[in-house]
Amino acid sequence: MPSPNRTEDTEVCCKTDTCELYCFNEALVHELRRRLPQGEELQRATAFFSALGSRTRLLVLHCLCQAEELCVCDIANALRMNLSTISHQLSYLRGCGLITYRSEGKMAFYRLADARVQELIRPQLTVAAGSPPS
After folding, report:
1. Is the CATH number 1.10.10.10 carried by domain 42-128?
2. What residue spans define the domains of the chain?
3. What pLDDT, in 10s, does the model give residues 16-46?
4. Among 10, 36, 112, 119, which one has the highest count of C-beta atoms within 10 angstroms of its own C-beta?
């Protein structure tokens, strides 16, 4: 029997990973909907997580976590990739607001835009590698 806060529907599901009886807590669902991110906030979060969805971009961010600032050539050589590939990924990350750029003569340097990026990335790489966070 569903709790008194739940609205019951007659549809019954029998698939795994679903409820066998479709019902929901109306007050809870209303509050969840009210708190859903909207507009630019959601767009920034989507861009952030999309940026992490690429192996190369994640490796670039990892390199940038290791140093205050890196030249494009340093990143390309560290990852054993060509300059155009790294440049393309750096442009994407810059567009997402995760890194910043500065030029000095003919050199192009990148750094993390914010210390929070490093705080988010380092623990995830540790978890993904199977090591407990330090």
Report:
1. yes
2. 6-35, 42-128
3. 677 777 878 899 999 999 999 888 888 888 8
4. 112
